[in-house]
Amino acid sequence: MNLLLCNPKNAQGTTHSRKGMYVPLGILSIATELKNTYQDKINITVIDEDIELANLNEFGQYDLIGFYSTTYNYPTCIYYAKIAKEYGSKTVLGGPHASVLAKNILLNQSCFDFIIRYEGEKPFLDLVGQLLNNKKNYDHIPNLVFNNQSTIVFNDLHTTDLKKVNTPSREFINIEKYIKNFEKLYPDKIGIRPGSIYSSKGCSWRDKSGGCIFCARLEQGVRCRTIETIWDEIKELKNRYSVNSIWDISDDNLNNLEWFFKFTKSRPKECNDLSFFIYSRVNFISEQTVQCMKELNVEEVFLGIESGDNEVLKNSYKGQTVATILKAVELLKKYNIKYFPSFVLGLPGESVSSLENTYSLCNKLADLGGVDRLGCTILQPMPGSLAYQKILDETDFGKKIASLDHIDVLHLEKFWADNFTNSNYDTLLKYRNKITTSIKGLKVFGNEEE
What we know:
Helix content is 40%, strand content 18%. It has 16 helices and 16 strands. A seven-stranded mixed β-sheet has the order 2-1-3-4-5-6-7, sandwiched between helices. The protein has a seven-stranded parallel β-sheet with strand order 8-11-12-13-14-15-16. It is globular. The chain folds into two domains: 2-146, Rossmann fold (3-Layer(aba) Sandwich), CATH 3.40.50; 186-446, pyruvate-formate lyase- activating enzyme (Alpha-Beta Horseshoe). It is of the alpha/beta class.
């Protein structure tokens, strides 16, 4: 069997600070499980259009094509899947967009044979097993959604045991292309060769509170990989690919403080020269955790600050205040650890006054030092987020889009701004541009210019 796993290019946009620089670990994890299980029974190709475009004329070579979908690239997934079906290939759609809107997709599109919701390792293994043996017993495959005559079947959900999943192999991609993209975007970071891992899945704050209003990540429950396995992966990245900087893409690297402390203490001597880029909520930044970061050689921490206004932070279920934000960044600065603050404009109750508070906080952080890049976006109520659900539940427009599979991100972004804030979209644009252009000395990332 010839199998293609594809991350299609975005059809509607946003820009961010990591696009095309870090490998698609979810796709590589699925490819690794398939290869380890079926060996020479399958040939696997991975195409990541953040790096290189797919040759659509070659789709006829594949028996099965799996597409990773986000709301941004979903229209491209449809286009590619239609071409694949013309060639006679079976098609599978996975990813966050498919996980949330599986029913709508199968009702509106005929180009997808199967949808996999949430984590895909086991369902992909089981599906390929059925296809290899020319069987159609799909009912037992977890996370699978498919049409059975006129009925859409939703199979039971399965959560992956991260301790039993193989380390994602990089043999399916050219890691040098990702490193070259990093060098192009950050020419000042001379000599850095980044590599990515994930140490855990899930967010303790989301489990406790329901999550921040804009969060569309879907993992439930905090699960950590084994410490030994992660260090083995990092050593492989260093020894085989000369990686010297590790980006841990986990939702929050301080979800489990006991685990984080053990991970740091277990660092092999041969990895002492590696630096780390991690994620954290500001509430987890303390003297103890920052000392541990310093020991691990954390060079930079991504902080979801979101707003400089306490009332807006409260409305967004962030569980933090401006005071806790400033305390966190001052601690990081004390230990000479850089931080990457991220702001979201258009949170519930946003007003000119709160936007001014956010702008002032951005300038204050720039003056304090310790930050050389910043993220500033306008809230996009993506499927799976509390914001998206509020639109569905509370507006007539929500009733109109409830059955759609294709979501116009820009239209939804504007609708949210004009209906769920005390401002409007044009004002949010003004402040986003004000932040991205007038704060000197910082590289600022935000929504793509419309």
